[in-house]
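Morning - zinc ion inputs below, output right after.
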Amino acid sequence: MMALEDLVVREEEGSKMEIDIKNKAENKLIFIVDSVDVSFLNALRRICTMEVPTITIEAVEIYKNNSTLFDEVLAHRLGLVPLISDLESTESILVPEECDCEDHCPRCSVSLVLKERGPKIVYSKDFSPTDPKIKPVYDTIPLLKLGEDEEVELEAIAQLGIGLEHAKWQPTTACAYRYYPLIKLDKSCEACGKCAEECPRGVLEFDEKKNKIKIVDLENCSMCKTCMSICEAGAIEVMPHEGKFIFRIETDGSLSPEEVLTSAGDILAGKSEKVVTFCKEGGS
Ligand code: SF4
Ligand code: SF4
Ligand SMILES: [Zn+2]
């Protein structure tokens, strides 16, 4: 799998696309991308959300459940537990379509067993997976509450899938971009300071010493244009910066944002290569 840096270098070889990381946390990445076409960025966003595979609980065989939670509700809840899905952990698992079994087998699925007796709260850490690498991302997700002598015994079957099939396979909890703002101030500005007073996001500041408006937090501008409507002199203009965007991606922890982006880049490159091959072969 390519690293994010490789993706940047590869893009820079073919165009002047630049990426500047603004904020990076465990499951969150915000970066500024410049000199890029909106259609490319939108394709990348859609692939991140819809086509990057993760492993998720797909079927649940419930042998015993005398808790107050219905089987269907419990099965639905288990399907939403994010499982570690990095390439290293999932590379030996086949996607169900590529497996020749009828339903599921050890080649295309991982089984997670849950056998607990109350009174207790059953957490995601209580799963016993057949493959120790495929386990819940977080230990502390409450699954159900068992009262005195209540029992649950089940086997959950996890399989690879993509968000296009069902949202539970989406690795992203947020994946969006917006135009980078461009603010222009012209000489007709009368330095009244009203735009700074009315800006709801602290983007503008009135510098009393220099008697002029300063842009102090450009990237926080939502392009609401309140400043433009308040300015009687028509001295301020807010517009999108063509070809420059703020991209934000957050994941459920099954994959890191960098892993999602690099996987999406690989998928997009694979699709493009197919088109190139098709054209080179004369469209036959
Ligand atoms: S409201 Fe208009 S005139 Fe007043 S400081 Fe802002 S840009 Fe200048
Ligand atoms: S467009 Fe809205 S957020 Fe941006 S500077 Fe003007 S008032 Fe502030
Ligand atoms: Zn199989």
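Note: The helical segments are 4-14, 38-50, 71-79, 87-90, 194-198, 226-230, 257-280.

O.
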